[in-house]
Fold this protein.
Amino acid sequence: MDISSKLEDALRSAGQEHLLRYWNELSCDEQRELAGQLEKIDFAALPELIRDYVLNRPKTAIPDDLGPAPYFPLVPRSDAERALYGRAEQKGRELLRAGRVCCLTVAGGQGTRLGFDGPKGTYPIGPVTGRTLFEYFAQNIIRAGKKYGHKLSWYIMTSALNHAATVDFFRKNGWFGLQEEQIFFFTQGTMPAIGYDGKLLLAGRHTLSLSPDGHGGTLLALRKSGALDRMKKEGADIISYFQVDNPLVHVVDPLFIGMHALEQSEMSAVMLSKTGPFEKLGNFCVSGGRLRIIEYSDLPAELAEKRGRDGKLAFVAGSPAIHLIQREFVEELTASGSLRLPWHRADKKIPHIDGNGEQVTPEEPNGVKLESFIFDALPLARKTMVMEFDRKEVFAPTKNKTGVDSVESCRQMLVDRDAKRLEAAGVTIPRKADGTPDALIEISPLEVLDAEDAQTLASAKNIVIAPGEKVVL
């Protein structure tokens, strides 16, 4: 097949003619594959993108008026606020009963950093049973549907790399007890990798070097996949967004949902009080009256360490990437068929082929991958809301095999959370000298969604836990 003159002109104008270097050596199928990849690239915008993010290293400008973001605290500060929280929780329950909420999980990653071959969501994280991350979410979603009397739809964003394996995993596991039609899989977009010379890299003679476009691409992928239309048809207005590596997350939380609704927020966020000024969480800030997140690596030390009169960190609000997003807000942002969020540069070692068609495996970073982040949509919202949660209840990221934010720490936090719920319900928990549970405890999310469910479980069963015991409830 011949390359279209329009595409050829676009490549020439962008200085990327080298991508067709092997065109005449390709089979018709290979030519179609390469042409299909090239047609998805906005070559008109490419030169500016390369100039701003590759040939130059972008710096995050810190506005002069940057201040800490306001938030609703974990514990109400007054009777009025306590009453507001009560109304919010009731409102959230009403919205869940009415089917106005759906779940969205970003699950495009692989388990490479965990030493695991497969989609990260298929990793066995259960402290006793080895429940996978996906199974935790699925069972929480089933329990929430039963508790609030309306089945929740679950939207799962995969990547081109793991889509087939993810869908196959769900199929082989009987959709984890969900009805197949409750789950909607869709794939995030990609961006071409760019060498330090500003040239797009080829992974092979007929394929570009592509990488996922970041969780900011979720919003556009929702439109392109038809997910937004499906949500609208089902009557879901509020999207509960969370990432696949955090099994402690509340897949839906009535208080958070209700506050989001009462505040008429278009995009809301969970915040955690940072453990120190330089904890690796994005910082909730305000500039020009708009909520935004400044990454931990970009916030100047003098601001990170700034403290109020009470001695607490001024910029104490950290982001665990848990959001509520109005469907109509996403529709509005993506109405043009595109989404203009800022890009974030990541220097990477990118395998590619050279001018002779030889495979190159670099030992040092040789190019740039560009990602967009979903939190950059916050300043675009007319109204936002931030609410504090207890990290021990909602945040146990599984990013590493050992150490901080690891498989080990996540499993311990799951045990701690389940032990705490049982203890609050009157069950005696054996504890070690350091106060941690002296037992491996795992409660099925099919039984317990929250503390209220734990109380019901404890009342129905005579639960006795011996030191050192492995307990599955």
